[in-house]
Amino acid sequence: MLLMCIVLLLPAGMATVYAADNVNSKETLVLGTSADFPPYEFHKTIDGQDQIVGFDIEIAKAIAEKMGAELVIEDMGFDSLLPALQSGRVDLVISGMTPTEDRRQSIDFSDHYYKASQVILVRSEDSDKYQSMTDLEGETIGIQKGSIQEEIAQGINNAKLVSLDKMGDLVLQLETERVNAIIVEDTVAKGYLNNKIVIASASPAETDSAAAIGVAKGNTELLEVINATIAELKVDNGIEKMVEEASLLASGNQKDRNIFTIAYEFRHYYAKGIGYTLLLSALGVIFGFLIGLIITLMRMSAFRVFRWIGTAYVEVLRGTPMLVQLMIMHYGLALVFGLNLSPLQSGVITLSINSSAYLAEIFRAGIQGVDKGQMEAARSLGMKRSAALRHIILPQALKSVLPAIGNEFITIIKESSIISIIGMADIMYQANSIRNITYAGLSPYIIAAAIYFVLTFMLSKLLSLFERKLSASDKR
Ligand code: ARG
Fold first, then answer.
1. pTM as predicted
2. Per-residue model confidence as pLDDT tens digits over 124-183
3. Signal sequence span per UniProt (predicted)?
């Protein structure tokens, strides 16, 4: 809890690094979207900067402008959009989303702003294989998780469904022959066509789908502004024009690249990612270390309650996946207590408490490894128990478990990659963004792996240097 207080205070100093925080007083409009859906919304490098563009984004800008608010975009998996809206993490969702009955149960929708139809993507060598829907029976089909295409695919006999969060991953699955077809909207399909991927002649049973904008249930005020904006944009085919422009922008996304050109072209992305990974790990290490120490002292306390709390803390945190802890921290607290932590805050808290449990175990082993005689000697010299602990036992204990602590630090750097899924712009997040831009399946990850390796390798060299220094002092 102490940590929570500290980390809640973080944003003051972090406002400059974490852009989504309110820096000025202007009202913000937070848009939730899954930017993997060209030409609706997608990533694009403009002037060396990663930007989210598309006609959904243009519509969002028009709404924000009408409100005199500043637009903030949160990119997430399509499946996370409804919870994000319900928990108040975002104000509206524009993501090519079809207003289905199911979704209307949990959120409200605007008027339709676009209509699309469904098509099936296949590998070019299979273009003649799927002439009608019966040809798709029993096939492995890729669809976006939580989308209406998922429902359509569920209606196909014996089809084996692979549902994933991001369109780019589905296209990779198709290219690598893990799925044989993808159901997707025609407008979107165009953005993914190349010499390997084509549209099959079969067309899904339910072909039409409309797109509308989602807001939290009962937010009629925002809904009115949205509907007014849509109506204005529809005059003179304004939306059609936006779609055309966005499609043009999307068509330029595919270039021939290899791992070296990717590393060079996106070096700024990785540089930014390294910054965030280091910040996250450093804070995780510092807080993890402090909390770990506190927990260890609690576990050695003379009071049974403290011992009990310490043990429960370690067991629970060690016994549950960090991914789950992260989800609870980031979404759970927002849903239940309305506590909206930024990705950095959630990330640092999760990383620290998680590693503090492991560190507490390491410290305990170290302390138990110190000869009992040390404590007895200190006490018989008149030292208090706490003073003896601090000046005699802990220094020896820490020294003996230094290698284990070093290991834990290295783990923190690697584990911090998990935080990317809540939108922390670390190395892993950047690698995913680059995959979304380039559709390159492997290279962005290889580059990320190389970076992580260099970081951990340097750290381990540093640690062994430190260890050698300490043991040198032993030999004197
Ligand atoms: N229209 C479909 C649906 O509502 C798919 C939308 C997917 N959107 C996205 N940005 N990936 O389920």
1. 0.69
2. 999 889 988 889 999 999 999 989 999 999 999 999 999 998 888 898 899 889 999 999
3. 1-19
pLDDT of 21 over the 80 cut? no
For the chain, what is the largest distance between any 2 Cα atoms, rounded to a whole number of angstroms? 91
- 253 pLDDT band, cuts 50/70/90, is low
pLDDT for residue 306 is more than 90: yes
State the CATH number of the domain containing residue 425: 1.10.3720.10
- Please check whether residues 144 and 70 belong to one and the same domain: no
Q: Are 215 and 31 in contact (CB under 8 A)?
A: no
Q: Tell me: do 93 and 135 sit in the same domain.
A: no
Query: Does the C-beta of 96 come closer than 6 Å to ligand 1?
Result: yes
Mutual orientation of helices 427-438 and 267-299 as an angle, nearest 10°? 150
Report the candidate in 94, 110, 82 with the shortest Cα–Cα distance to residue 54: 94
Domains of the chain: total = 3
Sign of torsion, CA 447 452 453 459?
positive
Q: Is the CB of 75 under 6 A from ligand 1?
A: no
Q: Do 377 and 229 lie in a common domain?
A: no
Does residue 227 surpass a pLDDT of 60? Answer: yes
At 16, the pLDDT band (50, 70, 90 cuts) reads: very low
Q: Do 371 and 290 lie in a common domain?
A: yes
Whether 142 and 83 share a structural domain = no
CATH of the domain at 134: 3.40.190.10
For residue 97, give the ligand 1 atom closest to its CA: 4
Ligand 1: which of 31, 36, 95 to mutate, judged by most atoms within 8 Å of the beta carbon?
95
State the closest ligand 1 atom to the C-alpha of 184, by its place in the atom list counted from 1.
5
Q: Which residue among 57, 97, 206, 208 has the greatest number of ligand 1 atoms within 8 angstroms of its CB, and so is best to mutate?
A: 97
8 lies in the same domain as 84 = yes
CA dist., res. 293 & res. 275, Å (int):
27
Looking at residues 451-473, what average pLDDT do you find?
Answer: 89
Residue 270: CB within 6 Å of ligand 1? no
CA of 34 from ligand 1 middle (Å) equals 8
What is the DSSP annotation of 264-308? HHTHHHHHHHHHHHHHHHHHHHHHHHHHHHHHHHHHTSSSHHHHH
Q: Domain span at residue 128?
A: 115-208
List, for residues 47-103, the tens digit of each pLDDT value.
777 789 999 999 999 999 999 999 999 988 899 899 999 989 899 999 999 999 999
Please check whether residues 321 and 406 belong to one and the same domain.
yes
The dihedrals phi and psi of 131, each to the nearest 5 degrees, come to -90, -30
Is the beta carbon of 37 within 6 A of some atom in ligand 1? yes
